[in-house]
Amino acid sequence: MQPPPPLPAPPDSAPLDQPTVLAALRARVARLEGVGRARHGTDPIPVAEGIPLPGGGLARAAMHEVAAVSPGAAAAFCAVLLARSGGTVLWIAAGGSEGLQAWPPGLARCGLSPANLVLVRAERWADALWAMEEALRCPAVTGALLVAEDTARLDLTATRRLQLAAETGGALGLVLRRDAPNPDPSAAASHWRVGPLPSGGAGHGLADPRWQLELLRARGGRPGGPWAVTWRASSGTLDLEEAEAPVVETRRARRGR
Amino acid sequence: MSRRFLALHLPDLATARIRRAEPDLPEAPLATWETSGSRRLLAAVDAAAAAIGLAPGQALADAQAIAPNLLLRPADREGDARALHGLALWARRYTPLAALDPPEGLILDITGCDHLWGGEAALLGDALDRLRRNGLSVQGAIAGAAATAAALARARADAPIAVSGIEAALAAPLPLGPALRLGAAELEALARLGLRRVGDLLDQPRGPLARRFGKALLDALDAVTGRRPHSIQPVQPPPELSETLDLLEPLITRPAIEAALDRLLAGLCTKLRLAGLGARRLALLAWRVDGAVQEVAIGTGQPNRTPAHLKRLFAEGLGRLEPDLGFERMALEARATDRMETGAQVSLGLGARRDMAALAELLDRLGQRLRVRRVAPVASHWPERSVSALDPQAVPPPPPPGWAHPGQPVLRLRRPKPLEVVALLPDAPPASLRWQGRSQRVLAAEGPLRLEPEWWRAQGREVAGAERRDAYRVELPCGTRLLVCRGGASGWRLHGHLP
């Protein structure tokens, strides 16, 4: 490992350049934590312009959880993030997830081209976890998604293993699971909740899909949201809406009642 | 260099198998029988039965009259052939070129293999010993031509080892029946002419012999005298590279087997590196003490010669081995190899190439346990046909235009699920549908997209599950978007989830 760069000069010699100091400290902490050991890009994956996230986006070499309010919106959100990781992506599905299978033409609409996509099917949940861990450990994989069954147990140990594997390989790890009121504790770097919003189209024709993103928990950052975003497949961007989202029912709101 | 062949003749393979399966059979002549048309004939006899004058082909009733205490079992030709094949696999411990000589013989091409056993006599002795210890009566011979060796093995019990080049002289004193494996009718016809030994035939002019008895007799004669050497067909093609390990103590435990595999892999990978090759298919062969041979095979997507990676691929298969009393010999064979760049080029290669290798290894590992595939886009409007599975190591072709059109779901149901939908008119878009236990109004519906099955592929029969359908993309008040289809007979079904 390289020796850490010297810190900027003490404040008495020059006026304190706070952003530079902060950036240097962040880089040093990241190196200590072992984030970004991967050979490929280490820059975080942007989610949407305007959503404040630690580091500016989803950290690579880390595991993130996505709780799905509806399967379609959450799967598309994951596909967008995986496509932005910019390399080979593994989509790992466990046995009896309702007979739902990833549909490559639809994923291609989210930017995930079939040239980069490898589909893995595991009959048993333990096999799926093993495959996810192996995939995250591989330096040639930039992203891996594990679709958890409804009944699957994904406890602290399992998520910690996945997190460690992701730190080794440097890939973006995503776990897609159904939104549950009391989720198991998890070692994921961030925890999202993704649900659909009405798109405003009426009668004939559907407008671009709108989703509600909620950052339930983030390591090194504050929870946030809900944000209303619109997915524009033509330009491949998630547009954050300025106005406060018409809150359907967030978990915090529920908890506050 | 002249070739050397070892022939083994196992006259009582069929009866020995029965004795082995039923150990408490009394000591009495044993024979198997089969039906030929409406007659019941002896198929195989053991040594005791042969001693009292029984022979294959005899009528069953005659045999029972001669020996009232004769034990009889139905013949199992397929089982015998399987047993012989198993023995041929076992015999690959001596040479990679082991061939069947049905119905009861084996021929091994031992050219260049004998020195590993300390000479031809030692090799032959070892083979005969091991087979006899397993309760088989066996005769063997070594000669410079396959058919000569086989004839010697059948006709002489003293395990002769003959130098190459004197095949005709060797074969001359042999009786025609066992040497040329002739049928009873032909033997009788020859005997009537006073021809009883191979030498008698060799003295005859060839033309009249061919006219009288056909080409088959002359072919057999030429083969046994080595005039026309015929090649043998090995039970398995010889491996491109292999590594074997003989063990003093039989291996029983998993760690011991893994340690042996480590040594085999290290040796084989060195050979591969020297040859500039990488393995595509490998097989681990394990010879059990009782003569059974077990095999574990793996395949790799890209040529590979990393021992650690190959060992991981074997991890799953090792569990299938049944050591029972232990393995006394193990071999690792490279059944298929491909050219692979040498070490220097790889280590100087760019990161991208190293990553490619890492990905190939990952997909190999996953593929050993799970279903791993890539997808190839196919130009078809019928959704079920627009994607086809590809090998994970393959490179998918570019998508055809219009393949990922906006109406595609991100998740599809493997089997579309019936859905309760209300439409105002028979052909109208859905107005409301039952979703998550309650009836929900449809805010917006896009469609229909009418899909007709690919009738040009059906070739006169209905493609399973293919039925014309109207696809609608609907949005519910909560924002959930679904792909629902109306089929003619099947009604409304949920086909997938849209983003």
UniProtKB/TrEMBL annotation, chain A:
InterPro entries: ImuA. It comes from the Bacteria. This is ImuA family protein.
TrEMBL record, chain B:
Coiled coil: none annotated. CDD domains: PolY_like. The keyword DNA damage applies. Keywords: DNA damage. Residues 19-133 form the UmuC domain. The keyword Transmembrane helix does not apply. PANTHER family: BLR3025 PROTEIN, BLR3025 PROTEIN-RELATED. This is Y-family DNA polymerase. It comes from Falsiroseomonas tokyonensis.
